[in-house]
């Protein structure tokens, strides 16, 4: 998984902030500790429950069925199926891209494929919800997903114009 | 009201741990594989917390857990539930170090950066400029799915608006140089890769504008979950 690099980046930022605090305002450590503990206290109950719940819910999505539909459909219909499948495609790129390759080889067109990748990266229900709901709250997660619903079709249609 | 609430929350936690302990004592480890067991734990905990006015988010997660385990059991049997729970636990172990980083970043960011400055630059009143800054920052942040979440949490808690947070997340997931080089180009070829990243450039701004409009229409000015977080912090 790509979490290795993510981990390095996240901890790099964290250590840089600690260094800046040490250098500029050492009394910030105390305040940061207090705020951090407050954040951890809410996360510790939320994250385990939501991660396991979503892992279970992901198993209910009929991915095989949508993938078959996508392979056969074209045009705007294909773009919609692509967006739908992408939104529910679980896992990181090592899972998603092989699926895309299989679909490409089975004859899916550029527009639907690009809609799929965009939906997978932008909506990414399963993946983002793990973080988004526990960290930012349900309201923010819903707001972001609703705001992004229209993006995969836009990407698919634009790509269709360019490719054909 | 405040001390009462604090007390009831402690009571809820104690109740939950008591339920969990009693359930774990029920028998050998195989009981964990039983979905009915998961269901019962989740539902009991839910009922108990609802009675004690526990955090509404946590209650909804527990309801989700109960529904999920029930539905998976109905369609795929105990084996399916076990697979799902194991997947979840594996993911949990994987993301734990990142959550720790998020807590450190969130704490220090709030302690170091004045709220007003972030709000002026990235708040919902910051216009297209704020969205453009957020989009550029998102596209440039390296790392896989979980890298920049700690950062966006910190920014959001430090005063960034809904629009900027949504634009940042959309740009960072939608336009990824690293992913393009590692995955898209080799597997899908240059044509799809170029076109996809090209059409993705305006998307974060669109999402940010929609998010701003929706937030203005449906949500209060201050992020409500943030207020709740603060209340929870004060409670214990």
Report the C-alpha radius of gyration of chain A, rounded. Answer: 20 Å
Distance separating the two termini of chain B: 13 Å
Fraction of residues in helix of chain A:
over 70%
Low-confidence parts of chain B, pLDDT < 50 over ≥5 residues?
A: 1-10, 26-31
Number of helices of chain A: 9
State the helicity of chain B in percent bands. Answer: over 70%
Q: What sequence of helices (H) and strands (E) makes up the elements of chain B?
A: HHHHHHHHHHH
List the uncertain runs of chain A: none
Shape of chain A: elongated
User: Helices and strands of chain A, in N-to-C order?
Assistant: HHHHHHHHH
* Mean pLDDT level of chain A: 79
- Most extensive chain interface and residues per partner: A-B, 90 and 98 residues
Count of helices of chain B? 11
What radius of gyration of chain B results from the CA coordinates?
22 Å
Major sheet size, sense and barrel closure of chain B = none
β content of chain A, as a range? under 5%
Q: Report the biggest beta sheet of chain A as strand number plus sense, adding barrel if it closes.
A: none
Separation of the first and last Cα atoms of chain A: 34 Å
Quaternary organisation of the protein chains? heterodimer
Number of strands of chain A: 0
Description:
The complex is a heterodimer of chains A (164) and B (236). Chain A is mainly α. Chain A contains 9 helices and no strands. The longest helix of chain A is centred in the first third of the chain and has 31 residues. Chain A is elongated, with a radius of gyration of 20 Å. Chain B is mainly alpha-helical and 236 residues long. The longest helix of chain B has 57 residues. Chain B starts with a helix and ends with a helix. The N terminus of chain B is likely disordered. At the A-B interface, helix 1, helix 2, helix 5, helix 6 and helix 7 of A face helix 3, helix 6, helix 7, helix 8 and helix 9 of B.
